[in-house]
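Dear H.,

Thanks for agreeing to be a second pair of eyes. The structure we're designing against is below in token form, covering all 125 positions.
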């Protein structure tokens, strides 16, 4: 009986540990999470990218490879790639290049009226 109780306790503790690990993994914020807000964002590869102008990203990222242009703006539901909340249609989006010359898709550069603006993929945990 003691062995059975011990086995049950060990199994429950193991399940608790695994469920805690799964529950704390960050997830990408979906565009629909911004519904009803005034957040400046656009959608690329199903992820939301939020305006980070004035942050530390301004000085550390430069424009890299051209990715595409904003196709629709002012969209509040059923977001698709290249939809934006405030960016004008035709705004060009580029891959960001770090000072070390590395490209990554967690930061993209938007060029609007000749100004480069960093947009960062957002996650929450």
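And this is the sequence the design step returned. I haven't edited it by hand at all.
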């Amino acid at each position: 009986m003691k062995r059975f109780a011990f086995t049950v306790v060990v199994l429950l503790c193991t399940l608790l540990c695994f469920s805690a690990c799964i529950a704390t993994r960050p997830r990408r914020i979906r565009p629909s999470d911004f519904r009803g807000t005034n957040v400046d964002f656009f959608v690329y590869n199903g992820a939301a990218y939020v305006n980070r102008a004035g942050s530390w990203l301004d000085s550390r990222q430069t424009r890299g490879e051209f990715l595409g242009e904003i196709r629709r703006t002012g969209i509040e539901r059923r977001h698709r790639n290249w939809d934006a909340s405030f960016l004008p249609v035709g705004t060009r989006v580029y891959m960001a290049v770090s000072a070390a010359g590395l490209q990554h898709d967690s930061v993209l550069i938007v060029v609007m009226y000749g100004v480069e603006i960093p947009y960062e993929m957002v996650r929450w945990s």
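Two observations from my side: The helical segments are 2-23, 57-60. The chain has one domain: 27-124.

Warmly,
E.
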